[in-house]
């Protein structure tokens, strides 16, 4: 009788855990969308703007990389609703993805076999390097065509010259944004873990 009750309650516990994880993912994604409303222009290139939308996405990635990836379409849709163009929304999604994937992977591996401080340093460095390199490459490919489409450049050749000219600013911007995002995400993740908020993610 006891084993029968246990077997019957197992699916209910699993269902409850899935509901909690869904609520967590929805909450983190909603917070990310709202944080995108608050922007600070990058002093060296005001058309680039800092925001902390990546922090809740990175926290979600540290708890479950699968859940964070699943939340990206909702995040992109939220950006479009807020008025972002399709290219801008996709670039933002790719920027945050290139930040939280290496952050989560490196942090989970280094936290197991080394000290907490080394895990933070390694994961933050990986996130910053990944975002900087990936976004520079992506901007080099996408931005010239966007400049021509938006009529900021008369030809593709001039658009590439403009893109190369702003590339140092793009690199500095992404590097300096990835570091605080990664640090805040790790701090928030540790705080929530200690508070028992992330119990649903424990196996």
From TrEMBL:
A GO term from the CC aspect: plasma membrane
Taxonomic superkingdom: Archaea
Residue stretches spanning the membrane: 18-38, 74-95, 116-142, 162-186
Annotated InterPro entries: RibU
Sorted UniProt keywords: Membrane, Transmembrane, Transmembrane helix
Keyword Transmembrane helix: yes
Xref: Gene3D superfamilies: 1.10.1760.20
Keyword Transmembrane in annotation: yes
Recorded GO MF terms: riboflavin transmembrane transporter activity
Protein name (database record): ECF transporter S component
